[in-house]
Amino acid sequence: MILIIDDDSTVRLSLKLLLQRKGYDTAEASSPEEALSKARKETFELILMDMNYSLSTTGEEGLELLMKMRIFQPDTPIILITAWGSIDLAVEGMRGGAYDFITKPWDNRTLMQRIETALSLNSESRNAVEVTAPAFDRSGIVGNDPALLDLLSTVERIAPTDASVLILGENGTGKELIAQAIHNNSRRKYEPFVMVNLGGIAQSLFESEMFGHAKGAFTGAVSARKGRFEMADKGTIFLDEIGELDMSCQVKLLRVLQQHTFEPLGDSRTRKVDIRVVSATNADIPAMVAGHTFREDLFYRLNLITLRMPPLRERPGDIPALLHHFLSNATKNSARHLPEIDNDTMEWLMRLPYPGNIRQLKNMVERAVLVGGDVLHKEDFYTPGLSPENAPASTSSTLESRERESIKEALELAAGNLSRAARILGITRQALYRRIEKYGLK
C-alpha cells in the first residue's frame, strides 16, 4: 500500500490513477492530521508526500510532518513532492530522512522509476538484514510468574490497537504500570500519556478537570485552562478508580467516549479529541451495573478488552525479584550498600498475605532500609498485622482474619485517622473504608 499525502485533490487523483494502473494499492490523506492518523494505524510500503501546504508558505508544516512520519513509519521510504521554487526545502527534507524528491510538474515515467527503485531497494534491505521486532517495554513491571507473563502476553498483542482496555485488580497490584505498558508499546507512544485519579476528583470539579474551562466560566476562573482530555489528544488517557465515578459524571464521560467531542466549561465551541482510553478499578463493576450504580453502556464502552491483575499473594515466586528491585531503588541515592535478607526472613516474607499487595511490600522495604543494617531481619519489616511471631498460613480464611487484624492494628496505630491508617497499610483511603465495612470494624 502506497500513501499519497497532498492537500490538492487533483494531484491525489492523478497519482492514484497512475499507481493503480501499475498495480499498486493506494491510500490518501489531504492534511497532516489525516496522514498521521493513517500512519499510526497502518504500515505502508512507500509514502508520496507534498511539502507545500496551502496554509503554509515557509514549508515548516511539511518538515514537521516529515519528522513525525519518520517516527511512525521508520522503515518506509518517503518521496517528497515539491515545486521548482522549493528545491531548498526538498534538500532540507532529504537531510530529515526522506528517500528522494520530485518536482511539479513531474514526468510519469521518471516518477514511476523513482518509486519502483525505492520499493526495490527497501525490499532488498529488509531481506538482507534480519528484522527484529522492537523489544516489549515492560515499563518497570517486575516478575516472571506464569499469571503475570500471560497477562503481559495479552498486553503485547493488544497494545498496537486502539481498543479500550479495562484493568481490574486489587489496590496496589500495579494496574497503572500495565496502563503505561499498553501506551509505551502502542503507536501512540510518542504522544501524551495522561493519568487521572477519578477517585480524587470531586463531582463539582469533574467537568473543569476533564474538559477544561474558559476564562470567566465560574468564580475564580481567571484564565482559560485545558482539561485532561485535551491534554491527552493523540495519546492515551488512563482513568484510574473508574468505579468511584458517580452517575452524573458517568453520563458526561460516556458522551466523550462515544462522540470523541467535548465543550470546555463556558465555551460553546465543540472540540474533537483523538484518544485511546485505558481505565482501571478495584471495584466489582458487573455487580455495580446490576445494582444500577454504574451505567451498563459506559461499562461496555470501556471494556472491549478486560485484563485482571493477579494479587501478590497469588504470585509469591515474584517476591524475591520485587524485594531486590525495591531494595535497589531505596539505596540508589544513598551511600550505603545494598543490604541482604537472611533466609528465614525471605521465607517469611514469601508467606505473608499482603492486603496492600505490591505497594505494601514497597513500603515495608523502604522502612526496613531505614531501620535495618547490612542484613535485614523480620523485625526490620514489621508492619501492623504482620508480626514475625505469627506469620500466616496460606488458607483463605486465615488470610482474611490476618487482613482484619492488620486493619485493626493500623487503625489503632493511626488513632482512628483513616488517611494515616491507609498509608500504613499501603492502600487507598477508599479501599480501607470498604474493608472496614466488609469486616464490620469501627
Residue share in β-strands? 5-15%
- Low-pLDDT parts are 54-58, 387-396
Q: What is the CATH topology classification name of the largest domain?
A: Rossmann fold
What would CATH call the homologous superfamily of the largest domain? P-loop containing nucleotide triphosphate hydrolases
Shape by Cα distribution: elongated
Number of separate structural domains:
3
> Strand pairing plus helix content: what structural class?
alpha/beta
Helix content: 40-55%
How big is the Rg?
A: 28 Å
By CATH, the architecture of the largest domain is named 3-Layer(aba) Sandwich
What can be said about the biggest beta sheet?
5 strands, parallel
Note the main attributes of this structure.
single chain; 442 residues; alpha/beta; Rossmann fold; Helicase, Ruva Protein, domain 3; five-stranded parallel sheet; 18 helices; 45% helix; elongated
